[in-house]
Predict the 3D structure of the following.
Amino acid sequence: MKIAVCGKGGSGKSTVLTLITKSLLNTGKKVVVLDSDESNSSLYWMLGFDSLPLPLMDSLGGKKKVQKKLIERFKDGFKEPEISIWMEDEITYKSLMPKFVLEKQGVKLIQTGKIHQALEGCACPMGVVTREFLKKYRLEPEEVMVIDMEAGIEHFGRGIEQSVDQVLSVIEPSLESISLAEKISELSRSVGACFKGGILNKIMSQDQESYLCSELQKREIPVLGVIHYYPEIQSACLMGKNIHHEKALKESEYIIKKIISI
Ligand SMILES: Nc1ncnc2c1ncn2[C@@H]1O[C@H](COP(=O)(O)OP(=O)(O)OP(=O)(O)O)[C@@H](O)[C@H]1O
Ligand SMILES: [Mg+2]
């Protein structure tokens, strides 16, 4: 199963993905994490890695080369989302060179690529690489892939969700986050992806939780579970440390039971 974790910037996508990853491991699943956020790099340390692997973009010759290939494909009359950059028909983590997959404590970490320099051009090549990688990636038995999406909804424009099995939306207590979850649910439906529901995050009171639940019910967004606000999680992020929080883990265990059959 491939699960895309979406939501508003700063809502807690990477944090929730980290908790979900650890809960999945505790149930005996193998987990592959794809970091497809071209801006932020925090995910690797949240997961307890010392660095990111080399980007998939480099396995294709680098961003400039991919950009050039894209232009050639457009000239040849191809249109998104049919454009193909990868030679392989099928990808597994074993078919990738080890420098593109880091492994620690049962988690495999892969990244698409990051923006490093001013004026280096748009992130279109990252979107194209992520889309085709997800389409061609063949999961092993008991393997689950979780994808840390960039904030917002641009990835829907690229058809990335067409290659995932489930879309989740992380919702923090803000109207903006609720509205974005509604948009994500609509867009998922429009591309034929399964929108599984919202995960409430950074919840500070029962009143907040009840209010969010009633607003989401009006919008027909199922609530998969709640992760409360924990100052220790915020401190870990401030210091660039691995996220490990027993109560939050228990909450995410409840959530994963709703999203996968164990
Ligand atoms: N449950 C929580 N309790 C306390 N702090 C949290 C919780 N979830 C997230 N945070 C804090 O909120 C901030 C944003 O979290 P995170 O980086 O996971 O969000 P994001 O949606 O991935 O952000 P971005 O859109 O920038 O990638 C971090 O400082 C993090 O520590
Ligand atoms: Mg993030």
Residues 175-191 form the longest helix (17 residues). The pocket of adenosine-5'-triphosphate (ligand 1) is lined by residues 7, 9-15, 37, 40, 42, 151, 201-202, 227, 229-230, 233-234, 237 (CB under 6 Å). The chain has a mean pLDDT of 92.
